[in-house]
Design goal:
This protein has twelve helices and four strands, in the order H-H-H-E-E-H-H-H-H-H-H-H-H-H-E-E. With 398 residues, it is mainly alpha-helical.
Length: 398
């Protein structure tokens, strides 16, 4: 049943569904590559975090002035022993292999598939990775993976808290500028959310910098910020304000994008319902016409002609409804480049499209062949008297 429904779709829709599917329409090697890539993609953050923990040590006071640094994942390993040096070297190698190797492998495998089978094969195989990005920056998700790698590495290898904040400020500033100028997302809302999220992180770190303790012996520029004092709570309130504003912006963007999609979905559902209704009504009209044409001798033929004309007019009106649905989908695409787009522009284009439906449709030409003239008898055994209904529209395309 599902295969029959897919076969009735347009070729471009079939290609889109096949590209989004993990198994349908793909060869066995391609399915293996897709499954293995998906597993690596979702395990990447946890894998890097576990490898980075091999470098994390905690200091414990055993009393009498005895302190020892023990590995977090294994307290039997002293961080000052030669065994720990081997573990640390292994973790650095694994971070390089997995942290840099997985994003690089996605790019290399994609380039190999594009050279071997063309760009369509590349897009189908890595649809889970490229979804949501423009064609030019379709591998931007690998940049996001490397960003996670850098943040985990900074937290792991830098022990001084304020130095971590300084590095994060520089790094987030660079990534925010790159996000703002390249705009890799295929949706304006997506680009705005990514840029706003990075900006919120940057402001949070800037406002939280006075709350972070510096290293021992380092001159403290924020010595006046005492925990529990007015300045301390002022910075905390500013951080909460930034985070709250970002959360409200995210909710508003989701609702705004969902509203546009709901308008399109509502129009498509209405067109689908009208399509089924008009098709059933057209079939019933044709059946009525054929029955009246063969069982009447006079006035039924003009009545049948009127019924067929009304059926053809309904068909033309349905085609115009389909044209409205196409214009609705195209209007959403124009929102990304139309400065006057958005919900207001979309509603204006929808209203102009539906106004076109009020225009009287073109009169169809109805031709009947093989039907005997009124009053003329018909031989039931004759095959040449088989009725044929031809409805010719003046403009069959919307």
């Amino acid at each position: 049943m599902e295969a029959a429904r897919r076969a009735q779709l347009r070729p471009e829709m079939q290609d889109k569904l096949r590209a989004q599917s993990v198994t349908k329409g793909k060869s066995v090697p391609q399915v293996l590559v897709v499954c293995f890539s998906i597993v690596l993609y979702f395990l990447y953050p946890s894998l890097i975090r576990q490898i980075a923990q091999l470098n994390k040590c905690d200091t414990y006071d055993f009393g009498h002035g005895v302190e020892r640094e023990l590995l977090v994942v294994d307290y039997s390993i002293d961080c000052r022993s030669a065994r720990y040096q081997h573990v640390r070297l292994l973790s650095v190698v694994l971070i390089g292999v997995y942290g840099l190797g997985v994003p690089l492998a996605f790019r290399l495998v994609g380039a190999f598939l594009r050279r071997l089978r063309g760009e369509a094969m590349e897009l189908e195989t890595f649809a889970f990775l490229m979804s949501g990005w423009t064609k030019r920056y379709r591998y931007w998700e690998t940049i996001v993976m490397l960003r996670k790698l850098v943040m985990i590495a900074v937290i792991t290898f830098l022990d001084e808290r304020r130095l971590q904040v300084y590095v994060f400020l520089w790094f987030l500033g660079v990534t925010m500028v790159a996000q703002f100028f390249f705009r890799p997302s295929d949706s304006p809302i997506g680009n705005a959310l990514d840029t706003g999220g990075l900006l919120a992180l940057l402001l949070t770190l800037l406002l939280g910098l006075p709350l972070v303790e510096g290293a021992a012996g380092e001159p403290d520029l924020f010595a006046g910020v005492v925990e529990g004092g007015p300045a301390y709570w002022g910075f905390v309130a500013a951080i909460l304000t930034v985070q709250g504003a970002m959360t409200l912006g995210f909710v508003a963007a989701v609702l705004w994008g969902g509203r546009d999609k709901a308008l399109v979905l509502r129009g498509l559902v209405a067109v689908t319902v009208r399509r089924k209704f008009f098709a059933m009504q057209q079939i019933e009209n044709q059946k009525t016409y054929v029955t009246q044409a063969f069982h009447s001798e006079g006035p039924a033929a003009p009545a049948a002609t009127d019924a067929a004309a009304r059926s053809a007019a309904l068909r033309l009106k349905f085609k115009m409804l389909g044209w409205v649905a196409v214009r609705t989908g195209a209007s959403l695409k124009r929102n990304s480049v139309d400065p006057h787009g958005g919900a207001g522009g979309l509603l204006k284009r929808l209203s102009s499209s539906f106004r076109a439906l009020r225009r009287p449709p073109r009169e169809p030409a109805v031709q009947f062949t093989g039907v005997p003239a009124p009053g003329v008898g018909r031989d039931p055994s004759s095959d040449s008297a088989t009725p044929t209904l031809n409805v010719v529209l003046a403009d069959d395309e919307p």
